[in-house]
Amino acid sequence: MTHADPARVEQVRANLAAARARIEAACAKAGRSPDEVSLVAVTKTHPASDVRILASLGVTDVGENRDQEAAPKAAETADLGLTWHFVGQLQTNKARSVASYADVVHSVDRARLARALGERAAAAGRSLTCLVQINLDEDSRAGVIGPRGGVDPGDALELAARIEEHEALVLGGVMAVAPREGDPSAAFARLQEVAARIRDRYPRATVVSAGMSGDLEAAVERGATHLRLGTALLGNRGPIVG
Ligand SMILES: *Cc1c(COP(=O)(O)O)cnc(C)c1O
């Protein structure tokens, strides 16, 4: 590739330092060690050159929410040895593609998807860590708004068991997005309860993927182990094309 734009490198470096400072401050306030909190850089809508810049600055984990964008980006940066996280809603017919490059799928929300991922990962000779996505939005659960992302908290253990059935899948823990309205801290507290219930039965399922650029402090306070940061690292996203 051509050399990275030095101005962009400096901008991302400064953003990364600021994000790490926020994480450290949040950990100090919560009495947690920053070592307990991993950062996943969500690179959606940003070019593969930004993935290279992040890697050059020490970022090891990157996330994407659409297969159409993630697949070519992962291929373009395959030489970097990064860990790829798939964090978006996933159609079953995309399972083969996602299982070919993703290491962690944060958005497993139904048994049928777990089965498709389990079969595709096995066929590819790969192991895939799966997180149960939990719906923390009571309004969407009641069918009041929008498409639901994730299972109801009460159905999480059942889906965890379905994931565990597949040899090629590793149950990693839980993931959630805070509802658009309301207090993210209260929502993440509900996630923390579900995470504890799953961990009681599956002690290795320790991942709590919660917190984005706007609410990482609340997520750290409520036990997040993985923060998914886009805007805080790479700036505002343009419109989604394609
Ligand atoms: C885009 C996205 C993020 C990152 O959001 P920011 O607010 O830009 O940090 C995190 N999680 C998911 C599921 C996303 O789609």
How would you describe the overall organization of this protein?
InterPro entries: Ala_racemase_N, PLP-binding_barrel, PyrdxlP_homeostasis. The modification N6-(pyridoxal phosphate)lysine is found at residue 44. Residues 15-236 form the Alanine racemase N-terminal domain. This protein has 242 residues and is α/β, with parallel strands linked by helices. The chain has one domain: TIM Barrel (Alpha-Beta Barrel), CATH 3.20.20.10. It is 43% helix and 16% strand. The protein has ten helices and eight strands. An eight-stranded parallel β-sheet has the order 7-6-5-4-3-2-1-8. Helix 8 links the parallel strand 6 and strand 7 (207-209). Helix 4 crosses helix 5. The longest helix has 25 residues, at 6-30. The protein starts with 5 loop residues before the first helix and ends in an 8-residue tail after the last helix. The mean pLDDT is 94. Bound molecules: pyridoxal-5'-phosphate (PLP).
Strand-helix topology:
Blueprint: H1 6-30, E1 38-42, H2 48-56, E2 61-64, H3 67-76, E3 83-86, H4 95-101, E4 104-108, H5 111-123, E5 128-133, H6 138-141, H7 156-164, E6 169-175, H8 184-201, E7 207-209, H9 216-221, E8 226-229, H10 231-234
Parallel strand pairs: 1-2, 1-8, 2-3, 3-4, 4-5, 5-6, 6-7
Helix pairs in contact: 4-5
The structure holds pyridoxal-5'-phosphate (PLP).
